Amino acid sequence: QPEVSQGMLQAMWEFQTLISELVGLPIANLSLYDGSTAAAEALTCCVRVHNRKATQKDTVYVSELTPPDRLSVMQNYCQGAEIEIKMLRHLDDGSLDMSSVEAAAGSCGVYIEQPNPLGILDEGVTGIKEIIGQNTALIVAVQPISLGLVEAPGIYGADIVVGEGQPLGSPITAGGPIYGIFACSKPYLRLMPGRIVGRSIDVDGEVAYCLTLSTREQHIRRHRATSNICTNETLIALMGAMHMSLLGPEGLESLAIRNLAACTLAKQKLGEIGALKFPHDGSHHFNEFVVELPASTEHCLTYLDSVGVVGGFNLSTWYPERTNWLLVTCTDQTSAKEIEILAQHISDWVHSLEVAA
Question: What is the mean pLDDT of residues 132-149?
Fold first, then answer.
């Protein structure tokens, strides 16, 4: 492979292998631009594979909780291909409405996120494939670190797994760098997007690595290609491969436990503030959860910002009707002291509201 060194090709092959093991599927590509393009590519891929047998042709179903920026990318990809996107409803507790899932049977694909955008680990996700059947693809978007504890989607029937690879060894630097994860089962191999490295034997009988199945790609098939993405985020994927290799299975489990522990502590500390409510208190969470505030989230975050605290994400940005919902995220970088500081300042903010009233 003259344009790529054997060392880099081997590293990318190892990356593919690690992602495959992580998500429980046999095939992974070299990465895509980000989690949103991976999700959008998954939708178009499942239509290419299933449209002939689908009873709801050119139709895919997407969780209604999907963040608007990701949904926008999906719509951009699907509108040109004349693919219709329909929504899967969620119940008040944040879990999927299974009657809505039943309506998706016969479509080309179903897209859900685990954990979902509200931070909920939805146990109902594991039964979706049984409902929609073999001729409808189950696409699951994951938080890769959560798979140190949560069952791999391939185990419960996912056909395609996508996600944002940033948590795997890529520091947050003003919003990047990032890359998208894409893995699938064998029926999708020849119609999946992106580059793939294969391992073979050269003329001397030595192990050799090469870019394989390139006839799917734009630089060869032009307008008949499976995708207009014929590159990948090599450097950042290499960082991800190094990160996963250094962690190993036990290290990944420890990292996931660290995230979960920080989230649990944060829920405990914020739960001691009487004025706060937890809309999904009966659900399981990995490292994110929703807090319902006694006043607007914007007002709370403005106060927290004035005292030098980044309090969380204003969910009205995604869901305009949720003006008092705050999404709190805790990772392995979140210390117990920082959680106590957040709880103390939110308590002070609540007290200031009571005084003003």
Answer: 97
